[in-house]
Structure formats: structure tokens, C-alpha cells
């Protein structure tokens, strides 16, 4: 199979767990599907090719919106692109007269085009400005490391990056910025590597966890995920499908907990809950348990997929839970 779109001569991005996502969505002719994290358009393209349906792509990254031009030309009248956050999908769809929909796909985290563009500052593999903003607006990662208090930096790296040496890293950052402002990914990565030894167990770069923590903070990615899951629950028609691909434990735990709550699959009620309170009726039905991970053939072609996990559910006829409601 060619990796090039013959109509545009542009490389085709093949997203993680593509076949499994399409299977979970049960794409059908006449359906309306939301690709809440449009990115390079991989899921949107595959959904549009799978059936004579319509897709609404949402992305907060202006560069992703620009990349949609070839797909818009290829699927006239079937693809619609909205610039915005997928956490706001219910409001975005309502404002555009769309809904309810038959499926929502979410690919959580940073996209390949974002990682591979040095000017975006997401990766320490290239030297570039310390930016990390998906929407190109708001405070940058450089603003965080140069202006936040040492204790606040340490908290971000610990909670969002799961960096065990977060206090040591934060101390090194504050010491370095006293001499000169930290402006590039290479500067920050070198500071982190100077105080965090390379792990002999997993071999990952010492800067990996700290960069993850900063990126999640700059883009409020976990808050966005929470809002996006609740938004998907609101926009899905009965029988509609939700498919979520996540790449690390912080994201996957949130997805798993949300789906278990909304499906009534959490087991025995909490001992702190009054016995008479049954809670809202399940708004989702789990499609499988434990999540789906990539097989060896996919991992051979795409090592980035190694940590990916897909979880899926089907919308029931029960009303969406009130915002903030927990099981």
C-alpha cells in the first residue's frame, strides 16, 4: 500500500489502532461522526473512506486546520472542519447546527506533526523554541519554567510528568534561569539531564517525563479530556459509539474511570453512599473490557504506538449525566 495520496502527492498519516477504532465506531452509510482530535486527518480520512458518511473534524491547532484542505477537496460536502477544543464539542456542534452524532473518535495527546515540527517545541529531539502550545495562544512552556515558583514547577513535573526527581529538576531550572532565561528545548533538556540519570531499566531520555508534564500543563490536557468525554456523552445519539485512544497512564485512567462510571460497572456502591441512592441510569455500555493495544505488526511499523490503548463504549437511551456527577 502506498503511503502517498495520489490526488495530492502528500504523505498519508496512518494513526494508531486505526482498524480497531473503525471497528469500535461501526461506521455506516448516512452516519455523522466527530473526529475530535483531527490532527493530520488520519481517522477522518479512514472514516470517510469506510462508508458514505459525514465527518466533523475538530482541532484547536491552526496548523491542523490548514492541513485539512486536501481532505476537504477530496470529500466535498462530507467533511466539515471546526477550529476549537474537543472539550467544547457539544457547544461547537450546537453552534453549527450539528447533532446528535453516531460516533466520536478521540486520539489523546500530541500529534505526530506537532512532535516532528521543531518550531512547536514539543520534543527535545530537535532544538527549537520552548513553546508546546497546541492552540498557539496563551502562556508557553518557556513562561512556565522561567516565571513559576520552584514549588509549582516541581508539582507540575510530579503530578503530570510522574517525574520522581521533580524537586531536583525544579531546583536546577530555577538555578539556571537565574543566569539566563531558558528559551529552547535543548536548553531545558540539558538542564534536566544534568540532574536526572538515564534509567538503566527503560532507557528513556531523562527529559521525557518533565517535558510530558510541562506539555500537559500548558495545554490543560487532562482537563480537556474530562470535558471531552462529558461532551461526547452529550452529543452521541442512542447507539452511537465513543472510541478513545490514549498513550499514558494518566490519560487512560481517566478514560477508564469515566466509562466505568457512566456504564455502572464500578462494582459495589461506595460505603459512603446512602443505600437508597442509585445514581443516574447508565448512559454508556462498555464495548469490551481492559482496552485494546496494538499488535506486533503495527508496533514494527510504528514504535510510537507501543503505549497506546483503545477504550470504547456505546451510548444508551438514558439521559447524559449532569456535569460533575460521579458514580
UniProtKB/TrEMBL annotation:
InterPro entries (alphabetical): RsmH, SAM-dep_MeTrfase_MraW_recog, SAM-dependent_MTases_sf
Catalytically driven reaction(s): cytidine(1402) in 16S rRNA + S-adenosyl-L-methionine = N(4)-methylcytidine(1402) in 16S rRNA + S-adenosyl-L-homocysteine + H(+)
Entry keywords, A to Z: Cytoplasm, Methyltransferase, rRNA processing, S-adenosyl-L-methionine, Transferase
Subcellular location: Cytoplasm
Region Disordered: start-end pairs: 263-327
GO biological process, one term: rRNA base methylation
Gene3D superfamilies per record: Putative methyltransferase TM0872, insert domain, Vaccinia Virus protein VP39
Binding site for S-adenosyl-L-methionine: 41-43, 59, 86, 107, 114
GO MF entries: rRNA (cytosine-N4-)-methyltransferase activity
Coiled coil, from the record: none
EC number: 2.1.1.199
Predominant subcellular localization, coarse grouping: cytoplasm
Pfam short name (any one): Methyltransf_5
GO cellular component assignments: cytoplasm
Family: Belongs to the methyltransferase superfamily. RsmH family.
Role: Specifically methylates the N4 position of cytidine in position 1402 (C1402) of 16S rRNA.
Protein name per the record: Ribosomal RNA small subunit methyltransferase H
Source organism of the structure: Nitrospirillum iridis
Amino acid at each position: 500500500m502506498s503511503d502517498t495520496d495520489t490526488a495530492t502527492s502528500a504523505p498519508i498519516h496512518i494513526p494508531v489502532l486505526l482498524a480497531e477504532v473503525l471497528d469500535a465506531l461501526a461506521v455506516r452509510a448516512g452516519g455523522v461522526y466527530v473526529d475530535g482530535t483531527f490532527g493530520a486527518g488520519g481517522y477522518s480520512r479512514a472514516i470517510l473512506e469506510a462508508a458514505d458518511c459525514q465527518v466533523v473534524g475538530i482541532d484547536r491547532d491552526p496548523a491542523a486546520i490548514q492541513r485539512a484542505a486536501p481532505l476537504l477537496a477530496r470529500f466535498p460536502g462530507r467533511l466539515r472542519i471546526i477550529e476549537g477544543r474537543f472539550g467544547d464539542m457539544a457547544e461547537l456542534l450546537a453552534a453549527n447546527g450539528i447533532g446528535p452524532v453516531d460516533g466520536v473518535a478521540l486520539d489523546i495527546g500530541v500529534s505526530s506533526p506537532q512532535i516532528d515540527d521543531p518550531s512547536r517545541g514539543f520534543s527535545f529531539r530537535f532544538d527549537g523554541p520552548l513553546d508546546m502550545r497546541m492552540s498557539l495562544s496563551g502562556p508557553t512552556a518557556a513562561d512556565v519554567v522561567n516565571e513559576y515558583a520552584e514549588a509549582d514547577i516541581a508539582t507540575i513535573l510530579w503530578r503530570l510528568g510522574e517525574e520522581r526527581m521533580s524537586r531536583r529538576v525544579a531546583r536546577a531550572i530555577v538555578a539556571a534561569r537565574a543566569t539566563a532565561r531558558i528559551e529552547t528545548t535543548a536548553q531545558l533538556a540539558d538542564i534536566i539531564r544534568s540532574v536526572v540519570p538515564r534509567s538503566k531499566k527503560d532507557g528513556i531520555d531523562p527529559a521525557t517525563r518533565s517535558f510530558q508534564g510541562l506539555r500537559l500543563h500548558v495545554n490543560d490536557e487532562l482537563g480537556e479530556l474530562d470535558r471531552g468525554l462529558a461532551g461526547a456523552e452529550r452529543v452521541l445519539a442512542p447507539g452511537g459509539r465513543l472510541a478513545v485512544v490514549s498513550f499514558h497512564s494518566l490519560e487512560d485512567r481517566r478514560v477508564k474511570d469515566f466509562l466505568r462510571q457512566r456504564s455502572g460497572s464500578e462494582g459495589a456502591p461506595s460505603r459512603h453512599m446512602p443505600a437508597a441512592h442509585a445514581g443516574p441510569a447508565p448512559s454508556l455500555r462498555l464495548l469490551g473490557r481492559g482496552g485494546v493495544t496494538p499488535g506486533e505488526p503495527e508496533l514494527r511499523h510504528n514504535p510510537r504506538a507501543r503505549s497506546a490503548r483503545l477504550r470504547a463504549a456505546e451510548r444508551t437511551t438514558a439521559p447524559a449525566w449532569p456535569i460533575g456527577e460521579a458514580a
